[in-house]
Structures are given as C-alpha cells and as structure tokens.
Amino acid sequence: MALEKLRMRKSVAIRTVIGVLGIATLVVVGGLANADITPPPPSLTGCDFLTGGGFIFPDGSKGTFAVGGGCRHGSGIAGVPYWGHLEYHDHGLDLNVHWNDITAYFPEGPTGTDPQTGQPTGTRWVCGTARTDLFGNVDFAVRVTDAGEPGSSDEFDIQLTQNGVIVYSTFPGAPHTLGGGTGGGGNIQLHKPNNSTTGVFGGSCPAFPG
Fold it and tell me: Phi, psi at residue 35, to the nearest 5°?
C-alpha cells in the first residue's frame, strides 16, 4: 500500500520563485529536480525567521509537522549556515523525517503585515537535508505560508528527493491549508527581523519542486 501511494504522487509543474530579496531559478531534466538559489548582494538587514507546527492530510492520511527556518548571525554570507529545523511524520506511510541541516531560506512573492499582530505575512521556503526511516538520507524542500491570524489559511507542503529523484511529495493537490478546504490545523508564524536575524535570503535547494 505504501509503495502504491508513492507511485501515485506526481511531480509538480516547473515554477520560478521570485522573492523580494532572492531569486530561485529552477532546472528540471528527465524528471530530476534541481534548484540553483542565487542570493542577492550581501545585506545585514531584511532577512527574518519563521516557526510553526500542525498537521495536513496528504492523500487522505495525516501528516504532522514542526518547522522553523531563517537567518541568524550572517546566514548566507561567507559560509554562515541558515537556522532551522524540521520534523515530519506521514501517519499513513509511517514515514518519519528528521532534519540534518538547513541549506536555504528564501521568500516567494511579497511580504505583508498582519493587522492584528503587526508581524509579517507571506510565503517562505526552507530547504535542507534529512534522514528518514523509509528512504535513508534525503534532500527536502518545505513551502510554508503565514496568511495571518488565526492561522486557518496558513499552508504547509513538503517534498523529498534522493539523488535528484522525487521519493515523496505533498505538492500534488497543494497547497494544503491548516484548517481550510483541505482540512488540517496548526499555525505558521513569520517573525519580524531582529538583531540576531542578520544575513541574506538564499542558499541551495536541490529538492525544490519541478
């Protein structure tokens, strides 16, 4: 049953993501997904961070997650890594994903402001490497959206690749909301930049959907 579900998952269409401060150019050849994230010129202002957790229902099965990502102390400049974490569990497949490191953090589209909280709203990508109990080591790309409070319109989706080949993806049928039409629950929170979130959007994201 698990293998049948995996075969039903299809790769998503090629997309080019243009962030406020970063550009992601996608190249997809023969079903292999690859993204070259080109960071903007170095700047010590403008980057931010996110935290979140909740659950979605990919293919009818429950997927629970906890995610974080962002810049910290000069991320993206002179080899300083990005900050973040990822835990994901697909209860239908009994797939567990635990992050190893964070390799990219960048925006998609404009950044707004939640009138209730004054915190930023918008979409961010968090990418990195992880270990799993079904596939071994993988690359991951997570897309999250903070659509403002109370969080029922926030979004979460994830894709895993191994040697450029997609082994798991929730992007068919995306976006999965945290309480909207696709069910789910939880909250994604974008946070304002502060003195520790210095750095630039960018990084490397081999698992970027394509």
Answer: -135, 130
Nearest residue to 145 (alpha-carbon basis) of 178, 104, 98 = 178
Could you identify the residue written with the tokens 């996110």? Answer: 50
Stated as kind and residue range, the H or E segment containing 68 is strand 63-70
With contact defined as beta carbons under 8 Å apart, do 200 and 78 qualify? no
**Which residues neighbour 10 within 8 Å (Cβ) at sequence distance 6 or greater?**
169, 172
Task: Determine the 3-state secondary structure of 59 from DSSP.
Answer: helix
End-to-end CA distance of the chain: 25
- Give the C-alpha separation, 120 to 162, whole Å: 33
What confidence category does residue 64 fall into, taking pLDDT thresholds of 50, 70 and 90? very high
What average pLDDT does the chain have? 82
